[in-house]
Amino acid sequence: MPEPKQDRAIRTRHTILAAAASVFEERGYQAATISEILAAANVTKGALYFHFKSKEELAQGVLAGQDQDLAVPDRPCKTQELVDTSMLHAYRLQTDPMVRAGVRLTLDQCADGLDRACPFHRWINIVTDLLDKAQKQGELLPHVTPAETAEVLVGAIAGVQAMSQATTAYQNLPHAISVLLRHTLPSVVHSSVLTSLDLTPSRGHTVHTEMQIPTQQDTAERAAATVN
Q1: Confidence band of 226 (pLDDT split at 50, 70, 90)
Q2: What is the pTM of this model?
């Protein structure tokens, strides 16, 4: 049976984005060329330009791609949900080329003409929302202003990411983010909340594994439905 056009278009777009992520991660925005991306994707120029009109649009697609699957399972403790979101991102930086490329583009000060602010704004909004919920549940210290704290945390995590990439190619990142949170959260949350948090470097892998279980169940159910 021929593949539906819509499915084929989605698959081609994903292939192009994955190739662009690989080239951007290796070469950076300025040095990367459309020709290199075409070769990596093994698609025609027409197919690429059908989905992306320019290198900038490709880069924006990769930047947006790093934010996929950010929503961790809901936690009764919103501070733990914030920790899980941060640690999952650290794990994905180690394991997902799209996330690595997106972060490189976000931190690439030589990417002239590329709007690199959107990922920061998205992260600040996510962290602010979680801190707002934590505050309403009485988890935060009285002096905390969620929006201000979100900007500090996002900026600090970005700095740790950049240092980890330069020094260990992200190998120490889960440990580094764990250390950062252990140093910053005592000035943000009540001590009673701190004692309940899982801040271990392996937390990101644990959350990632937890998030795969529904996906595996859905796949099994679809397969069973097809057989029936």
Answers
A1: very low
A2: 0.83
Contacts of 196 (CB under 8 A, 6+ apart): 77, 80
**Residue (of 135, 59, 126) closest to 89 by Cα position:** 126
CATH of the domain at 53: 1.10.10.60
Alpha carbon dihedral 89, 154, 194, 206, in 10-degree steps, equals 0
DSSP state of 148: H
Range of the domain at 137: 78-221
Burial 119-142 (b: 16+ CB within 10 A, else e): beebbbebbbebbebbbeeebbee
**Are 55 and 144 within one domain?**
no
Give the model's confidence band at 139: pLDDT under 50 very low, under 70 low, under 90 confident, else very high: very high
Claim to verify: residue 165 and residue 57 sit in the same structural domain? no
On whether the CB atoms of residues 217 and 103 are closer than 8 A, the answer is no
